[in-house]
Queue: 2 jobs
Job 1
Amino acid sequence: MPRVARKTRTRSHLGRCFFELDSLPQAEITGQDMLDTIALGVLIFTAISLLFGAIAISRIPYRMARERNHPHQDAIAYGGWFSLFTLHAVWPLLCLWAAAYRQEPQPVFGHISEDTAINDKADLAADDSQVDADITDSVTLLGHRYEVLDDRIERIEKAILAASDAA
């Protein structure tokens, strides 16, 4: 059987193929092709902007709930994502749910009666002498209350000692 010579691909052959790509006929880019490319870019940008806008809108009820310290913040956040996938069908309900709760403001120092607090007029007083007089009155009142409480403590201690001696 006669021996057939095999043609082997060498590196130079592969390299030559890549360099011959420049000699292929190239399509001309026309003005219409450029407009199509720009229109595609604008379409992609618009789609991405609408997606991020829809996500931002779906987060509004959660932000309202977080500002109001709503006890169901997590549920409202999950509802916002659910609303995103249902094209915001439940979004108005989430807004109402988040807006319906308002936490009652808690007093910082608890309830303070008028006779134990510094007079509120001290903030409104124009001259310092009135403020000083109000502070002096409040300190005098607190000193009197301290004496009363100290007397009560002494009486209670005496009653406890008398009860323990009797037992």
Job 2
Amino acid sequence: MSSEPLKNNRHELFCQNIARGDNQTQAYIKAGYKQKEDTARIQASHLITNNNIIQRISYLKAQNASKGQIDRDKIIETLNRVINESLVDTDRTSALKAMDILNKMGGYYSEKRVIETTTETVNEVAKAINNLVGKK
């Protein structure tokens, strides 16, 4: 893995964008390359196979993971994009799921969990606890 930034600034930006979670085409365009969708997609696919690029992306992703960096803004941006695209495509299920995740992230509600048990289970747990603390 390469800890040194790449000499080619566009290559370095491409790697950083990929490590942040952009897809190849987005990373390619944000790095300052041609903005035609088809050209960007093809060239990004070619660039991602470069060994120096692969090593640099691996290093940057490892750095991000070790620092515990989760780009909350990127997640929110992506979820908002999913909502907007899903509503245009009338995919209500995806839109609602993305809205649900955004609401959870915002702390607007928490999940309720229902635990079903029987008296027999409670008695078994109580017996196990008593055995652990030495009461019989």
